[in-house]
């Protein structure tokens, strides 16, 4: 099973394009009396989280347009919604045409938080479900409650099922190849890892690009940092790299237990020093 991970939108910058055809959708999500009109719907095939030998159809209905990478997995979707908060639903349909997972994304919870799981009470009326198309209605028959938050939804959708492929990092190596260990960009990346794992926010701001450092001024960033740290591989090997002007790319590898991860690190040179601009990881569970 392949999982694509971005460490956090406040640290990482993901360059993406939106789908030209997001499918047809007519629906609403009501949270604590606030009604969000769901204007965009997407569907993609993903590995079944409960059975590695099977796949599921992942459908997302949202009030904002989403980038293609947001459909790769939940971490990419989290990165996209941290950058631009959304109101919407994400649900997984298995081969038996059952909803096995349902996440609600909202900007209207009373006590904070932007998403929660709500599977079991929903109703799904499917009109069509093939490898290339899914259509139907997902709805909650009556309002429900999640720790004091009142919500209800009703979504009719007619969406093409899209195949989204993760880019090959090797295609991005341009310019002069770096020596073993990544040279100066490699040293900058290892220094960044140390301050990140130590939870040193002032040091972290100095290690990343100025745009990423500015985003770390968000008051919620300290709360998010433990999650970012937990997603960072503990031991990383730099396997290749290149420098093209003021941009450097490092390719990395990490092995932990039964998981092997490969990474692509993008650095930019600012004021004569290499800074981390973006970090992406793809993991394979054995």
Compact description:
The protein is α+β, with helices and mostly antiparallel strands and 286 residues long.
In words, what does this structure look like?
The chain is α+β, with helices and mostly antiparallel strands. 17% of the residues lie in helices and 46% in strands. It is built from five helices and 17 strands. The strands form two sheets. Strands 2, 3, 4, 5, 6, 7, 8, 9, 10, 11 and 12 form an eleven-stranded mixed β-sheet that branches. A six-stranded antiparallel β-sheet has the order 1-17-16-15-14-13. The radius of gyration is 20 Å and the shape is globular. The N and C termini lie close together (8 Å). 35% of the residues are buried.
Instruction: Report mean pLDDT, rounded to a whole number.
Output: 86
Order of helices and strands: EEEEEHEEEEEEEEHHHHEEEE
Instruction: Indicate the structural class.
Output: alpha+beta
- DSSP helix count? 5
Oligomeric state of this protein: single chain
Distance between the termini: 8 Å
Q: Uncertain regions: pLDDT < 50 for 5+ in a row?
A: 1-21
| β-strand amount | over 45%
Largest sheet: 11 strands, mixed
The tally of beta strands, per DSSP, is 17
- Residues in helices, as a percent range: 10-25%
Globally, the shape reads: globular
Using only CA atoms, what is the Rg? 20 Å
């Amino acid at each position: 099973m392949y999982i694509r991970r971005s460490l956090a939108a406040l640290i990482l910058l993901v360059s993406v394009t939106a789908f030209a055809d997001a499918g047809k959708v007519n629906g609403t999500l009501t949270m604590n009396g606030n009604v969000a009109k769901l204007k965009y719907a997407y569907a993609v095939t993903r590995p079944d989280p409960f059975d590695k030998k099977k796949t599921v159809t992942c459908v997302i209905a949202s009030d904002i347009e989403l980038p293609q990478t947001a459909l790769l997995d939940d971490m990419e979707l989290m990165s996209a919604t941290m950058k631009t908060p959304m109101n919407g639903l994400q649900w997984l349909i298995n081969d038996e045409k059952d909803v096995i997972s349902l996440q609600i994304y909202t900007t209207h919870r009373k006590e904070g938080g932007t998403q929660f799981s709500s599977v079991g009470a929903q109703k799904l009326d499917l009109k069509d479900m093939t490898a290339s198309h899914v259509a139907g209605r997902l709805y909650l028959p009556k309002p429900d409650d999640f720790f004091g938050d009142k919500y209800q939804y009703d979504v009719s959708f007619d969406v093409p099922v899209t195949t989204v492929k993760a880019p090959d990092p090797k295609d991005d190596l341009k310019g002069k190849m770096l020596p073993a260990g990544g040279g100066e960009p490699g040293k900058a990346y290892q220094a960044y890892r140390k301050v990140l794992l130590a939870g040193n926010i002032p040091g972290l701001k100095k290690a990343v690009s100025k745009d990423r450092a500015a985003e770390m001024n968000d008051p919620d960033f300290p709360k998010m940092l433990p999650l970012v740290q937990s997603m960072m591989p503990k031991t990383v090997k730099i396997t290749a790299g290149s420098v093209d002007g003021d941009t450097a790319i490092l390719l990395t590898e990490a092995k932990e237990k039964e998981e092997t991860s490969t990474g692509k690190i993008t650095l930019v040179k600012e004021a004569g020093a290499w800074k981390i601009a973006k970090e992406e990881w793809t993991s394979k569970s054995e």
